Amino acid sequence: MNFLADTALILLALVSASAAGVWAWQATRVITREDPAPKYQVRLQIVNATGQRGIAKIVAQRIANYGDGLIEVCVVDTDDLNATRLAKSFVISRDGNGESATGLAHRIGIQPEGITNRQLDHNNRQVTTTLVLGEDWHRLTLPTL
């Protein structure tokens, strides 16, 4: 009788350990699932040249942490240019190759002729793209809050 009880306890322990192992494997697989990195990682500076104060911060709130699998945006700086007023918004590539600027411009509705290249001399914030907002900023295709 002792032999049967001992065998039953051992089998119960093995089944319990197996079940716990399967659960842990599945939980670990879900928790450590790695999504592929987006093709474009944009460190964005937003400059307001609309003539209206505060527009850069409004756009930053709408575009902050935007990501769709292909592009990921992190706003690193905003600024108002009080003395400058521009009609059209445009994008400046700051990283030399222009891919992240082009990816962002395409997503928000800026045509290729609205993209320019100019590297920053002292790029301490590692800005890859600058979005300069013109008076047409409300026509941009921005994520909604």
Description:
This protein has about 140 residues and is an alpha/beta fold. Helix content is about 35%, strand content about 20%. A five-stranded mixed beta sheet has the order 2-1-5-3-4. The longest helix has 30 residues, at about 1-30. The radius of gyration is 26 Å and the shape is elongated.
Could you provide a short overview of the structure?
The protein is built from 3 helices and 5 strands, in the order αβαββαββ. The protein has helices spanning 2-31, 55-63, 99-108, and strands at residues 40-48, 71-80, 90-93, 115-117, 129-133.
Write the layout of secondary structure elements.
Layout: H1 2-31, E1 40-48, H2 55-63, E2 71-80, E3 90-93, H3 99-108, E4 115-117, E5 129-133
Parallel strand pairs: 1-2, 1-5, 3-4
Antiparallel strand pairs: 3-5
List keywords for this structure.
5 strands; 21% strand; 145 residues; alpha/beta
Q: Cα-atom Rg, whole angstroms? A: 26 Å
Number of strands: 5
What is the ordering of alpha helices and beta strands?
HEHEEHEE
Return the average pLDDT rounded to an integer.
Answer: 84
Distance from first to last alpha carbon: 69 Å
